[in-house]
Amino acid sequence: MYLKEIIIENCGPIGFIKIDLPFQDNGNPKPIVLIGQNGAGKSIFISHIVNALLSIKQVVYDDTEVEEGKVFKYRSPSYIKAGCTYSYSKVKFEQDMFQLEWQLDRKKSDFENHYQYTPAIQEWNQIEANANSHLNSNFNNQEVALKELFDKNCVLYFPPNRFEEPGWLNYDNLVNKVDYRFNKRLSNLSNRLIINYSPLKDNQNWLLDLLFDKFTLEFKTQNFNFPVNQPGQPQVNIPMPVFLGYEGESNNIHNEILKFLGLLFQTEEKLRFGIGKRRARQIEILKNETSWIKNIFNLSTGETILLNIFLTIIKDFDLSTATFQNLSEIRGIVVIDEVDSHLHSNLQYIVLPQLIKLFPKVQFILTSHSPLFLLGLKNQLGEGNFHITNLPDGQEIDIESFSEFEKAYSYFKESIKFKEDVKAEIAISHKALLFVEGDYDIRYLTKAAELLGKQEILDFFKLVDSDGHGNISNVAKHFDSKLAEVTPQKILLLYDCDQQKQPSKKGKVYKRVMPTVAENPIKKGIENLFPIAIIDSAKHHKQAFIDITPEIQKLERGENVIIPELWEANKSEKKNLCYWIIENGTIDDFQNFNGVFDILNEIIND
How far, in Å, CA of 396 to CA of 378, rounded? Predict the structure, then answer.
């Protein structure tokens, strides 16, 4: 079960928003990221969702996290938007289940007499005459469906003030002992929490249960007959058990967790969990069978937060009545306020988006201030596969329209360090400078020069990685002055074929775009220079190298429009694709690079 629609009117800074939660064509929910400056209403928006989820749990189970008859979110007319007379909200789920709330600046009867009007909302009639606050839902009529929600889904909320005290700060954590979980076997108890502030201890106890099940219940053997010969006796076959490995749900989950650890720590080395002896039982992490992190409470705050989110989602679904073989089958609603809190740039840009991608059937509702996280989400999920909603107006926007992105990008462009780095390159180099969009361009050009016999041309230049086309433009702006005429050496800014730049020259600074090969399968980036033969071979070697969007037909202004099939180098696999092509490519595969060397030769002879 998923959220379908949220309406909020006149609450805090929010005037009116109506958000239909987005879904893929296959029914999977798209992550939605709420953005906006501090005070824009992100946490208020989240609070209405969490309040509804907790109300559902109150109907189904006795181990509620909020006292029966109470609410998680503080209800008060003080949250009515300034200058307004009432606030209204409605949270709707699948199967037409809902919870709504009214707050009035005075009793309903006084409201109608004083203002001589009523809001044009049907549920107004549900408010009692002497009440200025009203909370209503149809949850009590949907107990079977609500129990299904909790029994077959993970339902989680991670507040903005979630935090695990590290071992060095808290002696109890330093000497913490892991233990097996104890669940009360009563039908009216869920043994699960929606709100998760500091779940690491419970997560490690669940992890111990998981490892116990793997090593004791999923231990697979097979009897093989071994012949035994004794003098004077006929040969006999003795059945001997042979260990075949582990097989089962716990083993599958454990293997997925180990993959995530490699992602979290950015290592391809072998990691696994270790468990201390029963008198001092702690969970550690081993690298290549050597103790590496002696206690998972010793992780950094950012690492702990991501590990907690990842483990809590799996644990909560595992404690439900649903079964699953892999992470892509986990369903539910996960709300995370300030999802990028305590995370450094690498965790925001790489690890967190990959974590979200692991759970395509989980409805993530997130708040964020981080442009890096949004860019990482775009790289992992692709354009259109998640929504960014700006508060307080509730408008869907793209990443470049995100005000925090614009600020961060402008600060970067103006940074003194960037300008000084460009000056330093000019000062130390006696060669002409060739700025390209990335490190992979340099690697491809170096290999092409070797195969095509163009080393002398390439040696004329010092190759500089600009770390993206945006930074080449920053270099161009730097030389959009008299500096272009007085620089001691030639400077070439060489863009990939998909950049719409016109060739130009100012002083000794040149702008050029790599030639486009129209018949080649990949249309963007330097990979456009490679013919279908090498790209097909690369795709056959590893399908993840190439993303393919099939040809589609759409109706545009009454006309049928064919959008042809699109091939792109997967952003996360560009490095591996580059290494594979360099190792396996032939002189025929690099023939189109002659056009690039023609450009370089033109600059040399100008």
Answer: 15
